[in-house]
Amino acid sequence: MNPVYADHIATTPCRPEVFEAMKPYFMEHFGNPLSLHDFGQTARDAIEAAREQVAGLIGAKTEEILYTSSGTESCNFAIKGMTHAYQKKGRHIVTSSVEHHAVANPVKFLEKNGCEVTTIPVDSAGRVDPDQVARALRDDTALVSIMLANNEIGTIQPVAEIGRITRERGIVFHTDASCAVGNVPVDVEALQVDALSLSGHKFFGPKGVGALYLRKGTRITPLIHGGIQEGGRRAGADNVPGIVGLGAAAVLAREEMNDRVARVTDLRNRLISGILERVDEITYNGHPELRLPGNVNIAVNYVEGESLLLLLMHKGILASSGSTCTSRALKASGVLTAIGLSEQACQGSLQMTLGPGNTDAEVDYILDVLPEIVSKLRAMSPLYHRKD
Ligand SMILES: *Cc1c(COP(=O)(O)O)cnc(C)c1O
To answer: Which of 266, 307, 360, 371 is deepest in the core (most CB within 10 A)?
Structure first.
């Protein structure tokens, strides 16, 4: 049996259509989009066509899309570049307690270098309260950055409400939508954001390519200085095949969006309700409805996430965990502690993220295997025996 891939939050497979679209741009059409000759023109046409495709997926104008190397670069570009460009207003930044490292770490960097940061907490479902964001805004606030969907617990933030507030106050607002775009409908007009980060490999495109949506008229200081690519805002020869792949992935996402959401939501609901039926002492983390369709994040009491993952892996099920050992960080997941889970509960965290390529049979297989593994681990756990 092939492995059951339930880690779509880490990355997704490149779709064959995407790969086919990219292929000619490695060797046949290898031109540099900046070249004036025909080879350059072909490459230029390709990246401009892709720009329209990416814009179309998120309701943006073509000229509002800037290519980057990743979701991480887009977030860094937005956070450092916009804070710098708006520094005359002040150096105050508002963010949330559940951001991905791609946002949290550049914000930390700026804090070390003289910015003041207000971090908005989340409730037990992982949601930010827009009123709290409104109260945190100050005359010297340069930027608000709050993610659209969380990569661990899947919770979707009230970005449109926050966008309405920031717009009223004339403060620029970036949202990290790296794990949302291509998996749920995203419209920059409805969200009222000024900047939005997205990543190709989170929605069946290639790795190493992303984009930053930047609303027309929004200022940004370049992160990478050099040539005149991307209107002088992001230098370096364009990753033409990657960009073509990003465009192709955007087209597929747009065409398949309704089916993707319906299908993946159905798989996820079957998986989570099956788990809750079969295994006791489990917390289902995140918001019951306002979450990414494929996200199942649970805390399994009295077991260690690492052992759970290893035994699942042994049975061909590939998932992830926010527990200490597996996150390769030194502490438990900041997101799980931010929603109020105890250190011990965090240790038993298990995240399975499904995609449209998963099957009902695979969900059934997980539901067969997981309860056995949990019983086995609990049988060995002194904590489980001591609980009564
Ligand atoms: C994956 C992800 C990123 C980083 O994107 P890369 O393209 O892998 O650099 C940032 N934020 C969130 C929420 C993500 O899920």
So the answer is: 307
The closest of 253, 267, 297 to 98, measured between CA atoms, is 297
Ligand 1 centroid – CA 24 distance (Å)? 27
Q: What is the pLDDT of residues 257-308, one digit of tens each?
A: 999 999 999 999 999 999 999 999 999 999 999 999 999 999 999 999 999 9
Most informative mutation of 7, 12, 178, 181 for ligand 1 (most atoms within 8 A of CB): 178
CA-nearest residue, atom 12 of ligand 1: 178
CB 151 near ligand 1, within 6 Å: yes
The domain ranges of the chain are 4-10+257-379, 16-253
pLDDT > 70 in the chain, percent: 97
Task: Grade residue 385 by pLDDT with cuts at 50, 70 and 90.
Answer: confident
Does the annotation count 346 as an active-site position? no
Q: Where are any strands of DSSP class E within the chain?
A: 4-5, 65-68, 92-96, 116-120, 141-145, 172-176, 195-199, 210-214, 282-284, 295-300, 317-318, 349-353
In whole angstroms, give the CA distance from residue 141 to residue 52: 32
Confidence class for position 331, pLDDT limits 50, 70, 90 = low
Q: What is the mean pLDDT of the chain?
A: 95
Longest CA pairwise span in the chain (Å): 77
Exposed, middle or buried by CB within 10 Å (0-12, 13-18, 19+), for 195?
buried
8 lines ligand 1 (CB under 6 A): no
By mean pLDDT, which of 69-73, 188-192, 378-382 is the weakest?
378-382
**CATH number belonging to domain 4-10+257-379:** 3.90.1150.10
pLDDT for position 386? 73
Ligand 1 atom with minimal separation from the 99 CA: 13
179 CB less than 6 Å from ligand 1? yes
Q: Is the CB of 102 under 6 A from ligand 1?
A: yes
Domains 4-10+257-379 and 16-253 agree in fold = no
* CATH number for region 16-253: 3.40.640.10
Q: 197 C-alpha to center of ligand 1: Å?
A: 9
For residue 177, the ligand 1 atom closest to its alpha carbon is: 13
Name the catalytic one among 14, 75, 179, 325: 325
